[in-house]
């Protein structure tokens, strides 16, 4: 491949990243503007002003449990893929990745940094990236599966719209993936390779059960945090209905067109609470407070990131040995 071709590909990649970022900002801000136009700024302010130290403390505790569970999930998969990370280090790195995902454009740069760092530490960046992708994907799949089950059992008011919509979206994605793979032998080989890696990561019953349990703990912590936000804004919702509402909002928050998590989450929360007879304003207030708590909950990641940066600055460069040869001077590490 020529240098000009590589340069062109890099320019296209950078342009694509800028377009994705612009889309996230435009959609996130656009949805927030639409929500404010519908319910006013009052619910957003109400949610943010409902916070107190007790609520923040509970959110931090729940986030600590969720982060530990997610880090455990990652350490299980990484270990089986040959890029193992010790659990205490996994927790710190996971906090840092969550913080970076929240404050940096794109929403995934923290995961990229976590994958590259651990991959380099273990001597295999590709496997490090693969472990992170598998770990995050399994987490999303478990959350989606729990949402379908809970909505089907306890969220009858959402069932007709959400389950059919999820079915259509999943069906379209599956068909598109199958068509793409069928058209390319190279992609089929790559898919077989990745399926083999997935099997290596969680293929046996023991690791698979542990990874699923860890994912369920993560989702449960997020659901309870949303319940804390709902209670803080003064709403009283039965637990089963609250679980359905929370999972609907969490699905909206995972839509990759948002601004630091804000946007579609507030729009869907307004709709879901209105459908449930609780009022769109209540949904917006609860979602706003939940978003604030989610940002506060990753604050320990700032400490980890700052500590890592200081250590990197203080780490001396490796000494270089100068060797004189007959043809000149040669430096070796």
- Overall shape: globular
Task: Specify the structural class.
Answer: mainly alpha
Average of the residue pLDDT scores:
80
Largest sheet: 2 strands, antiparallel
End-to-end distance, in Å? 31 Å
Please write the string of helix (H) and strand (E) elements.
Answer: HHHHHHHHHHHHHEE
Rounded radius of gyration (Å): 23 Å
Helix proportion range:
over 70%
Whole-number tally of structural domains: 1
Q: Strand percentage, roughly?
A: under 5%
Word description of this protein:
- There is one protein chain.
- The protein has about 325 residues and is mainly α.
- The chain has one domain.
- It is built from 13 helices and 2 strands, in the order H-H-H-H-H-H-H-H-H-H-H-H-H-E-E.
- Strands 1-2 form a two-stranded antiparallel sheet.
- Helix 5 crosses helix 6, helix 6 runs antiparallel to helix 7 and helix 11 crosses helix 12.
List the helices and strands and how they pair.
Blueprint: H1 3-39, H2 42-49, H3 53-80, H4 87-103, H5 109-122, H6 125-154, H7 156-182, H8 185-202, H9 205-232, H10 239-253, H11 264-275, H12 280-297, H13 300-314, E1 321-325, E2 328-332
Antiparallel strand pairs: 1-2
């Amino acid at each position: 491949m020529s240098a000009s071709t590589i340069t062109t590909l890099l320019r296209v990649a950078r342009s694509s990243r800028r377009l994705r970022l612009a889309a996230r900002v435009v959609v996130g801000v656009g949805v927030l503007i639409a929500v404010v136009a519908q319910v006013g700024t009052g619910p957003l302010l109400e949610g943010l002003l409902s916070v107190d130290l007790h609520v923040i403390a509970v959110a931090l505790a729940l986030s600590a449990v969720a982060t530990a569970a997610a880090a455990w999930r990652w350490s299980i998969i990484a270990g089986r893929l040959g890029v193992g990370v010790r659990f205490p280090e996994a927790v710190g790195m996971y906090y840092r990745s969550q913080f970076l995902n929240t404050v940096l454009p794109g929403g995934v740069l923290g995961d990229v940094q976590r994958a590259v760092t651990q991959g380099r530490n273990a001597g295999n960046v590709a496997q490090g990236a693969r472990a992170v992708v598998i770990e995050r994907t399994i987490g999303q799949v478990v959350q989606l599966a729990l949402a379908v089950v809970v909505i089907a059992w306890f969220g009858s008011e959402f069932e007709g719209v959400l389950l059919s919509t999820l079915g259509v979206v999943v069906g379209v994605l599956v068909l598109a993936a199958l068509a793409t793979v069928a058209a390319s032998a190279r992609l089929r080989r790559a898919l077989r390779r990745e399926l083999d890696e997935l099997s290596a990561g969680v293929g046996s019953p023991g690791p698979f059960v542990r990874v699923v349990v860890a994912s369920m703990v993560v989702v449960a912590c997020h659901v309870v945090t949303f319940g804390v936000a709902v209670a803080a804004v003064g709403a009283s919702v039965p637990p089963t209905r609250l679980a359905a509402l929370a999972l609907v909002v969490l699905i909206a928050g995972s839509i990759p067109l948002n601004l630091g998590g804000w946007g579609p989450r507030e729009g869907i929360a307004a709709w879901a609470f209105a459908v449930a007879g609780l009022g769109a304003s209540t949904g917006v207030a609860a979602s706003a407070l939940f978003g604030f708590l989610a940002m506060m909950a990753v604050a320990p990641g700032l400490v980890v990131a700052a500590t890592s940066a200081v250590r990197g600055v203080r780490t001396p460069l490796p000494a270089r040995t100068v060797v004189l040869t007959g043809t000149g001077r040669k430096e070796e590490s």
